From TrEMBL:
Highest taxon, organism lineage: Bacteria
Putative zinc-finger domain location: 11-44
Stretches the record annotates as Disordered: 110-132
Origin organism lineage: Bacteria, Bacillati, Actinomycetota, Actinomycetes, Pseudonocardiales
Comp. bias regions, Basic and acidic residues: 122-132
Species of provenance: Goodfellowiella coeruleoviolacea
Protein name: Mycothiol system anti-sigma-R factor
Length: 132
C-alpha cells in the first residue's frame, strides 16, 4: 500500500507498527515518525483509522470480560503440570498445605491453595528469601 509519494518511512513498515502506535508502546521519536507518515499518506491514514475503530470496538465489547476463576485454576494447573513434565520444576508439599517450588534452581515458598500468591507482603518476603 502506498500513496505514490516518497516517505521517510515505508508504508508497510508503518502499517506493521500501527498497533504499537495505537497502544503508545513505541518511543517518542518513533511515534513522531509514524504520526508524520500518517499525516502525509492518506491510504495509511485510512487503514490506521480502521485499526483505531477496531481497537475501540474490541475494548468496548471485550474490555469488561474476565475469565472465570475455575478457568484460571485449570489454566494454572495445566501450566504447572507442563512445567513439571518438562523437568524444570519440582514441588514439595508441606502438611499445612503450603508448597516449596524450585524453578531452575530457585526455591519459592507458596501459600496453601486459596491464599493469594500475589499478596505484596508474600511476594516481597519470598523474593528476598529466594534471592540468597
Amino acid at each position: 500500500m502506498s500513496c505514490g509519494k516518497p516517505h521517510e518511512t515505508d508504508c508497510s513498515e508503518v502499517l506493521a507498527e500501527v498497533w504499537l502506535f495505537l497502544d503508545q508502546e513505541c518511543d517518542g521519536s518513533r511515534r513522531e515518525l509514524l504520526a508524520r507518515h500518517l499525516d502525509e499518506c492518506s491510504p495509511c491514514l485510512e487503514r490506521y483509522g480502521i485499526e483505531e475503530h477496531l481497537k475501540a470496538l474490541l475494548a468496548r465489547k471485550c474490555g469488561g470480560d474476565h475469565a472465570p476463576d475455575t478457568f484460571k485454576q485449570r489454566l494454572r494447573a495445566r501450566i504447572r503440570e507442563s512445567m513439571i513434565a518438562q523437568g524444570e520444576v519440582t514441588i514439595e508439599r508441606a502438611p499445612d498445605g503450603s508448597s516449596t517450588v524450585e524453578v531452575a534452581g530457585r526455591r519459592i515458598s507458596v501459600p496453601p491453595e486459596g491464599s493469594s500468591c500475589l499478596a505484596p507482603e508474600l511476594s516481597r518476603e519470598h523474593r528476598s528469601s529466594s534471592a540468597g
